Amino acid sequence: MRTQPFTFELPFGGMPSEWDNHIQRSLSSMNGQYYDQAAYAEMLSENDQLLYEVYEVLVPAVEGELLHGVSILHPGKVGSEYFMTKGHFHSVLETGEVYYGMHGTGMMVMETPEGESSVMELVPGRVLYVPPRWAHRSVNTGATEDLITFFVYPGNAGHDYGTIEQKGFRKIVVEQDGKPTVIDNPRWQNTP
Ligand code: F6R
Ligand code: ZN
Asked: Which stretches of the chain drop beneath a pLDDT of 70?
């Protein structure tokens, strides 16, 4: 746990020079999230492939600290839907997050508990602000490149994955006519 000032290097398109925690999420952790369930089942039966990785530096998970790290989302699709992160609300809903696009192209799918929705593009050199209360999921719309982002959020935020696992996001990003397209999620469930 880091409690003293520190630096590390983060080259564009590359890996951080150091980290404390390496999280890897594969296809099996996305059960029920992709709209084409048959394509998901078939892909999973072939290989539980790695979808994304997160490199975190560990600072205390308390108010005042700033948790940060690098997210690397690999390219690919399940059916016509691009590879994406699980997505979450912060457990402390009134906490936001800053993302910085470093490599590749993608989108951030966001929504509030009240039903507001927003999808914004992530490109290298662009800062994307996720305000407090907005659930967020990144999507890699590139054909061959990783989507690499740097993120910073409050130490006490925590993660609520369950709400999105149950309901999904209202919007999803699919390839239509060769282009990334935002559509209503046919599997979105309006459960209380
Ligand atoms: C932290 C955050 C990112 C994500 C990462 C992986 O609050 O938003 O660090 O954790 O992009 O996505 P999830 O956590 O949804 O699997
Ligand atoms: Zn977050």
From this structure: 192
